[in-house]
Amino acid sequence: MSRFLSTEAACLAPYTPGEQPTDAQYIKLNTNESPFSPSPRVVKALSRAEVLKLNLYSDPTCGVLTDAIAARYGLRRENVLAANGSDEVLAFAFRAFCGQGRGVAYADITYGFYKAQSALFGLEATVVPLREDFTLRVEDYLNFPGTVVIANPNAPTGIALPRTDIQRLVESNPDRVVIVDEAYVDFGAESCVPMILRYENLLVTQTMSKSRSLAGGRVGFALGSPELISALNRVKYSFNPYNVNRLSLIAGAAAMEDEDYFRDSIAAIEKNRAWTTRELEALGFTVLPSSANFILAKSDRMSGETLYRTLKENGILVRWWADQPRIRDYIRVTIGSAEQMAALVDEIARLLDM
Amino acid sequence: MSRFLSTEAACLAPYTPGEQPTDAQYIKLNTNESPFSPSPRVVKALSRAEVLKLNLYSDPTCGVLTDAIAARYGLRRENVLAANGSDEVLAFAFRAFCGQGRGVAYADITYGFYKAQSALFGLEATVVPLREDFTLRVEDYLNFPGTVVIANPNAPTGIALPRTDIQRLVESNPDRVVIVDEAYVDFGAESCVPMILRYENLLVTQTMSKSRSLAGGRVGFALGSPELISALNRVKYSFNPYNVNRLSLIAGAAAMEDEDYFRDSIAAIEKNRAWTTRELEALGFTVLPSSANFILAKSDRMSGETLYRTLKENGILVRWWADQPRIRDYIRVTIGSAEQMAALVDEIARLLDM
């Protein structure tokens, strides 16, 4: 370990993102991107005239973007914070609401970033096991005194929690913040956004990386009471006031305003998810019930590791976690286009036949 | 203070960025932006084809951008970290190199963000007064045991430090990191980049917001030994692995490759700075010697506050700090185009005549 590292930096647990190969052509089903280009409105909005203004700073309040988000969800600007991807939103939230004497709780199988960010801020983390079937038991969190973070639907399982469960959690202790990470909510789970105006202690985070085809634009946001949003802004203005660049502000607003394109994208993914699930089940796979744009699946004839490695050798990238015993038998497959899913199913059928 | 705030978040000292008005047309000389649009190469690089790929994540290693930066400075990719503006670079560096038992030292009059980020990470900050003439005495830092941060040229004074002074500081304790914030170095100060290959403990941070006309693109970077860059990456991958979006990666690389456009921009700013300095001195102003794209100036006939307020009423924005007694008499004026500077000088002459 470098002599220059602070004690705190030595204790970090950096996140390993999915492979982003630049050297070869893969069917890329490993990082839950949308297979569809962004809305034509985004293409139109990113005009030459806007590029020529890149010499000027972006609006630190992200006005254009937060207004578009607020309008879409029937909220006010004071209910919205925009950020450089929802990872940044989560980091701001972890710093704003957790610290000495106020730890954080999350599931054992969930988005890996909660662990990385807990280490970043030196938080005491309580890791709560999911049930055997990977569902979350909300009772496990009701008496936890610190901040609770729940991904809904969960990643990488895809399993959704009913909104009534989160409502119980939010109501059980109004002095505790509940963060609901809705990165994948648009693909079929019940969003908690309608509860925001009723509960001051509920923060919902979302991203435009999945359902709005803007992973490369880095646009995430938080929705919550003005009190919670104001706390997030304290952190943002201590870290990076101009956190969203000019073009992403414009792209995000345009994407949020194109409801038809959004709905069509979702419908296509849901259709392809149903088809892929059926096909894999026909090949003997167990597929967890998914409300996201991915599925977690295991074969009764081939290990997760072999599936991951053999698919990669044959030009298809999926995600597999070597370091997670509970899901080591599974692979996580992003739901792409119909053509991509057909290629995946054909390749898996071929591998199992060999 | 909100009951939801962590103790740490309650202790923050959020930064106040310069005004970014969206409601009126101002001659904007308050946030040190370039008056020139980005290079035509940037405009060309941000093609429709690239926008159509925004559904895919950006390369977390920022390969295209770090390679362009490394090539420009005769370094290797391992010497470069790219980030969402140099504020993010600085935050990563503060976390990587400072913490319990390892504080940070910086000048009393310098970039306000060092204070905000010290508070963000709960660091013990040693604030070292500049001399009466606002020059920095490097001897004050030689025996400081923690991390030293020096803006060179300094902001908001514009005063540059000779490279030999920083060399003394770097050599005086090879176990201590020295961060040289070169946000404005291209406008006339001596860069420490040529020293990077010799000193493992020297980190240089730069930005494309000023000399490369990309403030709205949010592209900053750090240059240093592979050991320091690796430490910054530990923090980055704990905070936000995909920290630079696709379009900014491309824009930054294109801007870095257009050396002619860069030199022409710098030459124009230096010429306008010299002209503005002469004109203000002729009007009785004291202007600090600047190596940056701004000047810090005070009038013998009008207070800094009156200048700031009256100029704003008349459509010209400059920066003034109410909360900084040592520079309360001064205004900071960004060096813009020849037309903008002529408008400023005319307006000031008119105000002083009234």
TrEMBL record, chains A, B:
<keyword id="KW-0028">Amino-acid biosynthesis</keyword>
<dbReference type="GO" id="GO:0000105">
    <property type="term" value="P:L-histidine biosynthetic process"/>
</dbReference>
<comment type="subunit">
    <text>Homodimer.</text>
</comment>
<dbReference type="InterPro" id="IPR005861">
    <property type="entry name" value="HisP_aminotrans"/>
</dbReference>
<keyword id="KW-0032">Aminotransferase</keyword>
<comment type="pathway">
    <text>Amino-acid biosynthesis; L-histidine biosynthesis; L-histidine from 5-phospho-alpha-D-ribose 1-diphosphate: step 7/9.</text>
</comment>
<keyword id="KW-0368">Histidine biosynthesis</keyword>
<keyword id="KW-0808">Transferase</keyword>
<feature type="domain" description="Aminotransferase class I/classII large">
    <location>
        <begin position="25"/>
        <end position="348"/>
    </location>
</feature>
<keyword id="KW-0663">Pyridoxal phosphate</keyword>
<feature type="modified residue" description="N6-(pyridoxal phosphate)lysine">
    <location>
        <position position="210"/>
    </location>
</feature>
<dbReference type="InterPro" id="IPR015421">
    <property type="entry name" value="PyrdxlP-dep_Trfase_major"/>
</dbReference>
<dbReference type="InterPro" id="IPR004839">
    <property type="entry name" value="Aminotransferase_I/II_large"/>
</dbReference>
<comment type="similarity">
    <text>Belongs to the class-II pyridoxal-phosphate-dependent aminotransferase family. Histidinol-phosphate aminotransferase subfamily.</text>
</comment>
<dbReference type="Pfam" id="PF00155">
    <property type="entry name" value="Aminotran_1_2"/>
</dbReference>
<dbReference type="GO" id="GO:0004400">
    <property type="term" value="F:histidinol-phosphate transaminase activity"/>
</dbReference>
<dbReference type="InterPro" id="IPR015422">
    <property type="entry name" value="PyrdxlP-dep_Trfase_small"/>
</dbReference>
<dbReference type="InterPro" id="IPR001917">
    <property type="entry name" value="Aminotrans_II_pyridoxalP_BS"/>
</dbReference>
<protein>
    <recommendedName>
        <fullName>Histidinol-phosphate aminotransferase</fullName>
        <ecNumber>2.6.1.9</ecNumber>
    </recommendedName>
</protein>
<dbReference type="InterPro" id="IPR015424">
    <property type="entry name" value="PyrdxlP-dep_Trfase"/>
</dbReference>
<dbReference type="GO" id="GO:0030170">
    <property type="term" value="F:pyridoxal phosphate binding"/>
</dbReference>
